[in-house]
Amino acid sequence: MYFRFTAGLLLALLVSIAGIWLEKQTLELRRATGVQHYHAEILRGWLVRRRLQAERLTMDALQTTEFPAPVPTEPVGGPEPRHGAARERQRR
User: Fold this and answer.
1) What whole-number distance in Å separates Cα of residue 36 and Cα of residue 42?
2) Is pTM beyond 0.90 here?
3) HSE-up (13 A, CA, CB side) for residue 9
4) What confidence category does residue 10 fall into, taking pLDDT thresholds of 50, 70 and 90?
5) Following DSSP, what letter does each residue of 74-89 receive, concatenated?
């Protein structure tokens, strides 16, 4: 009788210790995930600032150099663009 009581009590104690350990692991993983999200946000902000800086520097470089404006040209010859089956039926 005492053996069963002690075994039941020990089993309950082991289950509660395992539950506490799992909760601690879960909290630790959530904390690590939160830190990773924080670092990702910092890196995204850094990347946006660098892209803006590169864009500004490119625009400054384009404004300071004298490039002729590109003249749009139409393609000469070449295949006619296709506009679906209705267009194909009209040509026949």
Assistant:
1) 10
2) no
3) 6
4) very high
5) PPPS-PPPP--HHHHH
Q: pLDDT category, 88, cuts 50, 70, 90?
A: low
**Six token digits for residue 69:** 């404006």
DSSP state of 1: -
| C-alpha dist (Å) from residue 12 to 7, 17, 24, 39, 85 | 9, 9, 18, 41, 75
Q: Which residue has the tokens 């830190």?
A: 35
Burial 15-34 (b: 16+ CB within 10 A, else e): eeeeeeeeeeeeeeeeeeee
Amino acid identity of residue 33, one-letter, is T
| Residues 82, 88 contacting (CB under 8 angstroms) | yes
pLDDT digits (tens, 9 = 90+) for 47-57: 999 999 999 98
Question: In whole angstroms, what is the distance from residue 44 CA to residue 33 CA?
Answer: 16
* C-alpha–C-alpha distance, residues 4 and 55, integer Å: 76
